[in-house]
Amino acid sequence: MARIDAFLKLGTAQGCSDIHLAVGVPPMLRMSGDLMPIRFRNLGDSELEGYVYEILTRNQLEHFKAGKDLDFSYVSEEGGRFRVNVFRKETGVGAVFRAIPSTVPSLESLNMPPIVTKLLDYHQGMILVTGSTGTGKSTTLAAMINELNRTRRVNIISLEDPIEFVHRSQEAQIIQREYGTHVPSFAEGVRAAMREDPDVILVGEMRDAETIRMAMTAAETGHLVLGTLHTTSAVKTIDRIIDALPIEEREQTKSFLSQSLLAVITQVLVKRAESRARRAVCEIMVMNRAIGKLIQTEQTHQVPAQLQTGRDSGMQLLDQALLAGVLAKELDPDDAYVYAMDKKVLQRHVTDTSMVPKLDVSSGSG
What we know:
With 366 residues, the protein is α/β, with parallel strands linked by helices. It is 34% helix and 23% strand. The chain has 14 helices and 13 strands. The protein has a 7-stranded mixed sheet with strand order 9-8-10-11-7-12-13, sandwiched between helices.
C-alpha cells in the first residue's frame, strides 16, 4: 500500500471533500468548506515528494519533473477514488486529492430543481453547468449523465480531465474518455466524438475558443451537449462565450446562443442549517424568446430580470434560491448571506450580526 493512502483513508473516514498535502504544514482536510489540520507533524519536502512519487506512473513522473502540473485520477488500495492535482510551489511539492464518491449521485439526492431533469428530455442543444472551482459542477454533471443513463437509450461520450465518477452503462451506452490519456485536447475529443455516432457529448471543460467552437458545432448538428465553464452567473457565461471567439464570429455566436443554448445552471455550495454539510444552490436560466432577443441586441445586463420573473419556466436568481432555502430552514443563513449577490435580501436573517456592514445598518436597511 502506498504511504499516502493512510492520509486518504483518514480523510474519507472523516467525510472530507479534499485532502491537502503541502510542505511545512501537516496534512489538511477540507471539511464542509473549511480547512482543518490533522494531528501529524509538518511535512518535509523530500518526505512529501516520496509520498507523491510512489503513486505516479513513469510518464506522469517525467511530465512532473519537466516542470508541469499533473491532473489525474487515483484509486487507492483502500478502495477510494480521487481526482488529484500535483504541483510545485516555493517550498516544494504540493498535492490536492478530491474524494470521489463510489456511487454516482442522483439529481434528487443533490436537491436539484425539477427543471434540471426536464432539460434532459432535449435531444439537441447545449446545457452549461457553471460556477467557481470546487462548487460541485462535476458532481452535477455526473448526476445528469446518470439520469440519462437510467432513462434513455442513447450513446453518451464523456470527455473529462480526469475521469472522476465511473459510469456503468444501463439503458444508455457510456464511453468515458480522459484528456491527456485518450484524447490530446477537449477540442480534438469533441471532433472525434462527432464521428462516433453520439447522441450526448459531455465536455468536461470548455477552456478555450477551439473547444467552445467545436461544442457549439456539435450542439447545432443534432447533439445534446453538456459542458462547464468557470463563470459565476448566466450573464457572465453568455459574455464569456461571446468574448472567447474572434470578433468576426460575434454575430454567429450570438445567434447560436439565442437558438441552441438551452440553459445555464450556475451553482454554489452552501452549508445546511442543521449540519456543516453543504448542498448545491443554483441560479437557473432557461432560454426563451425574450432572453434570446437580449443576447442578439447585446443587452445581457437585463437577463437577471427575466430570471427573476421566469419562475413558471423553472428559472430563478441565486438570491431567490438562497432566500427560499433560508426561509425553509434548509440553509445556514450566515453562509447563505456570504454567497448572496444582493446582501440586503438576506440581511435580516443573519445570526452573526458582525457580518452585516455598519453602513447598511446606519442607512436604515435591514
